[in-house]
Design goal:
This protein is mainly alpha-helical. It contains ten helices and no strands. The protein starts with a helix and ends with a helix. It comes from Devosia insulae DS-56.
């Protein structure tokens, strides 16, 4: 990782702290923990997986957009366009902080989940999901000018991406549905939290789809940022 990318990571951490993103996220995680503590036994077994699935999507999508709107208001990206900072450096800063935030949340929630069958699968899936939604969020955020505009307008982009994920709850599960990234991601989380059993193919195919979705989203974000930053 370049020195410029490390500097941007530090900048993102300071910006997120200054604008209360960490405080807001702590409240969200505390709410999740409260729900799992008080209602865990009465909730359907797939609820923890669903909470974990929607969490990195929200972090990667909404928090990214808010950060980019704040940077735009402060003229940060205009300054970056005239600097030696590359699209890779800029994207690395956003990925590192926001994916890290999603993984931290997942680790905090794990003790309150009644059964975690595969912690490694859980963390890998959360990381891939977060990467995908950060990547998708970049070109969408570039379309908006204000935080409020993004938070309202971007929901129209996010909903069709997440909604098909509920198909992962079907039993028996048609494996061909795993071609939909949201379905693969939630299905992997259901496996990781011990809600459903799986064969080798039922793990491998969703993992391949989730990985390809993350890689494609990063490529999309990089392309959009090269147009924005001019390099």
């Amino acid at each position: 990782m370049s020195d410029r990318a490390i500097a941007l990571i530090r900048h993102d951490v300071r910006l997120q702290y200054r604008y209360g993103i960490y405080a807001a996220y702590a409240v969200i995680v505390a709410l999740y923990v409260t729900v799992l503590l008080l209602l865990g036994g009465a909730l359907p077994p797939w609820v923890p997986a669903l909470i974990i699935f929607t969490d990195p999507a929200a972090v990667g999508f909404f928090f990214l957009g808010a950060l980019m709107m704040l940077e735009k208001a402060e003229g940060v990206r205009t300054a970056l366009a005239a600097s030696p900072v590359s699209a890779v450096d800029y994207l690395a800063g956003k990925m590192f902080t926001l994916v890290g935030l999603s993984l931290t949340s997942c680790l905090l929630l794990v003790p309150f989940i009644h059964q975690v069958a595969n912690p490694a699968l859980l963390l890998v899936t959360v990381a891939l999901t977060a990467v995908q939604y950060v990547g998708i969020g970049v070109p969408i955020a570039l379309r908006f000018r204000t935080v409020n505009g993004y938070l309202i307008g971007s929901a129209g982009f996010l909903t069709p991406l997440i909604a098909p994920g509920f198909l992962a709850l079907l039993e028996p599960f048609p494996l061909w549905l795993a071609v939909i990234p949201a379905v693969s991601q939630l299905r992997l989380l259901l496996m990781a939290t011990g809600v459903v059993s799986s064969t080798t193919a039922e793990v491998t195919i969703p993992m391949i789809v989730a990985t390809l979705a993350a890689v494609g989203a990063v490529a999309l974000a990089h392309h959009a940022l090269r147009g924005e930053l001019g390099k």
